[in-house]
């Protein structure tokens, strides 16, 4: 059976009250879940609080960002070893909101990828096309371009054990989710693209989809063989809808023998 990976990205939302309510509801219903990897990504300042709240449960911790440097005069930044120290397992990098609002380039993201791998943390590398690239049929080209910098600097083997989140930018926070058949096509392309450059051909990459995932479209997405899970934004801020997404993802993946 395939265990889906469901990550809830809280973005710039939440406070201490939200954490205690959200985590206690999650703990009650999916706190000991075995057939799904459930991960939450709170804002940086609450990582420690959330780590305590999820203690002894199956829920795991993800950070939303990391700095390029390990230590030194970099005011306001958080390093990979600090994230490891606090108990994070996954770290989101390359999210389109950081590419847009914080001018992060593919090269910067490749450095973050390298630093996380070195520290033993799992990068959740977000890639995806703009609305224009989508309209012009350049989705695969855009995804390949974002992967290429890492491939050329670190090789295909560096992708082993990593999570890639395919997130079409036009689908994020818009309510316009990409069609599952189209997502499948892109995921298959990404997997093959990396595998072709992997000399040993034994790397395993988890590929999630993100972009307006809800309890209404999760079954269609998880019916696809190359969609290994989902990265959820808006819908993860409501515990009931996040739990529905997790349960439906498990139901769909457990009924499939890919
Ligand atoms: C995201 O920001 O990664 C995301 C997928 O958001 P949403 O689910 O709101 O589209």
UniProtKB/TrEMBL annotation:
Alphabetical list of InterPro entries matching this protein: Aldolase_TIM, TIM_sf, TrioseP_Isoase_bac/euk, Triosephosphate_isomerase, Triosephosphate_isomerase_AS
Entry's Gene Ontology BP terms: gluconeogenesis; glyceraldehyde-3-phosphate biosynthetic process; glycerol catabolic process; glycolytic process
Keywords: Cytoplasm, Gluconeogenesis, Glycolysis, Isomerase
Enzyme class: isomerase
UniProt subcellular location: Cytoplasm
Gene3D superfamilies named in the record: Aldolase class I (3.20.20.70)
EC number: 5.3.1.1
Chief site of localization: cytoplasm
UniProt GO cellular component terms: cytosol
Record has Cytoplasm as a keyword: yes
Catalytic residues of the enzyme: 95, 167
Entry GO MF terms: triose-phosphate isomerase activity
Residue sites binding substrate per the record: 9-11, 173, 212
Assembly with partners or alone: Homodimer.
Family, as annotated: Belongs to the triosephosphate isomerase family.
Name assigned to this protein: Triosephosphate isomerase
Species annotation: Candidatus Erwinia haradaeae
